[in-house]
Specification:
Blueprint (H helix, E strand, L loop, with lengths): L3 E7 L4 E7 L4 H12 L7 E6 L5 E3 L18 E7 L6 H4 L3 H16 L7 H16 L20 H5 L5 H12 L7 H12 L8 E6 L5 E6 L3 E6 L6 E6 L3 E7 L2 E6 L7 E5 L2 H21 L5 H99 L5 H58 L5 H13 L3 H6 L15 H6 L7 H19 L1 H34 L9 H12 L4 H8 L4 H10 L1
Length: about 625
Amino acid sequence: MPKLFDVRVTTMDAELEFSMPWKSSGQELFDMVTKTIGIREIWFFGLYYTDSKSCPAWLKLNKKVVEQDFPARQNPLQLIFRSKFFPEDVEEELITDITMHLFFLQVKQAILDMDIYCPPEASVLLASYAVQAKYGDYDPTVYPPGFLKDEVLLPPRVIDQYQMTPEMWEERITSWYSEHVGMLRDEAEMEYLKIAQDLEMYGVNYFPIKNKKGTDLWLGVDALGLNVYEVNDKLTPVISFPWSEIRNIAFKDKKFTIKPTDKKSPDFVFYTQKLRTNKMILQLNVGNHDLFMRRRNEDTMEIQQMKAQAKEERARKQAERNRLARERAAREEAEREKEELQARLRHFEEEAKKANEMLLQSEERSKLLHQKAVQAEEDAAATIQKAQEAEQEIQRVRAMAAKTEEEKRALEGKAHEAQELAQQLLRTSDERQKEASHLKVELVAARQAEMDAKHQLLSVTSGTSTRSYVAGDLQSSLYEQGDTELTATAPLDLSATSDWRRPTVSDAANGDLATEGSATSLTDDADESAVVLISDDVAELSKAIEQERLEYIQKSKRLQQQLTELKTEITVLKVSDKQTDEDRQHEENYVQKGETKYSTLSKITSGTTRSRVDYFEQL
């Protein structure tokens, strides 16, 4: 059985362990790691470790792993899989999602660890994209205030500089996070990287150097070339040598010599403190120079295939995103239709309830008038009976009138009185009869009002016959109230609504709702567009990408305005004595001078190579 050694490789989001044959080379271990992770753009990455002198080092791929300078008795061997070289344009060069994800995690961690300087307002914007990448679309019902309290999203330097609570920072991050709705994880990570790549310290490896005069300086190695910085300013390079101007790179002991392509120009010579530093500088210089030249040549067949696959994948994702967007819009429209129908239902129920109350009031009023009419008839009958009795009394008195004159006169007097009483009773009887007649008229009017109320109730219920469930609910609400008199007097004919049911999604698809066929036709359209995009029309994808570029330019202007507004808003909360040298340098370059990373590089690469080498020697 061959002798083995154990290796633990840490990536930005995982930890891998391998048992490798004793004679395995660095290339074999690197291939094992990249295949396990699924990385195809292997030229960006390397295996990083700390050597026996506690200095950073990159694993040499052409040398056996066990023969490299690992700390003694380290078991398993500890390495970190990370990006060794950075692209000039992340959107153009990062092809696969896994590569982009690892770059995103590494750059985000470098910003949080303050290895890359990021101004406060840009830190908040980047944090919003990081939250979108992790949590997806913002939903206040799912993510209430305080959901970011355990997340590390801002550099400590930014938090210390402002008199702001965690809740205030979360509010500002969430404000931007809510604007990223619909953005997928890979899109959010790409937006993060596109902003981060414009930061001055992005992708730069710094090494302490000295010129021939012994002046302490920084050498910065990045994707575009070699930059020289003053010892107290890592943001603003004073000299730059693009890779296109460099012909040869070599070192001897601590002396490093770079030969320009301009043979009339003197060599660019600097000195380092350690020989190990020169070895790392050489590795980074060679690798970055090779990538610089490769970018300016035609892509290899492998890269062309990867880019074609990536375009097809983006087309598929775009088609899927469009389909989901249409389905989301259809669902939202259906929800709006549902809410409108429910509001109309509630309105009809209220009208029906009011009509039912009016009907009950009419019935009560008609009952009361009926009782008054009966009472008036009884009073009129009693009055008539009294008049008849008075008439009989008159006849009896007249019969007795013949007895005596005296009695006659007395009786005449009584007769006269009785006659007046009878006339009075007759007048009262007439008045009672008139009152009874009037009450009968009012009773007829009340019953007519009752019939009108019933007709109004029927008109309300029949007006919603096109929505069967409304009529059904009305019928239920009417009979549940126990209107016995109503049912007996004029029962409602709601048989047309006996087939009661709520509208469903299938109803909407069949045309029962206002959005005719919206649920089914959208899916068919999405499938057809997906086939066209994937199989037939790569040119359309190119147009779409160009359109995205234009949209990005407009979005960048808007983001710049938002960043300015945020900076203005939080400036009043800044603690001035907590500002670092990098904050002051950024303020001077960006705000006062209006310089950016790229304008500075353009300025310091002007002039001849000789003049820049001479300037370096004079520092």
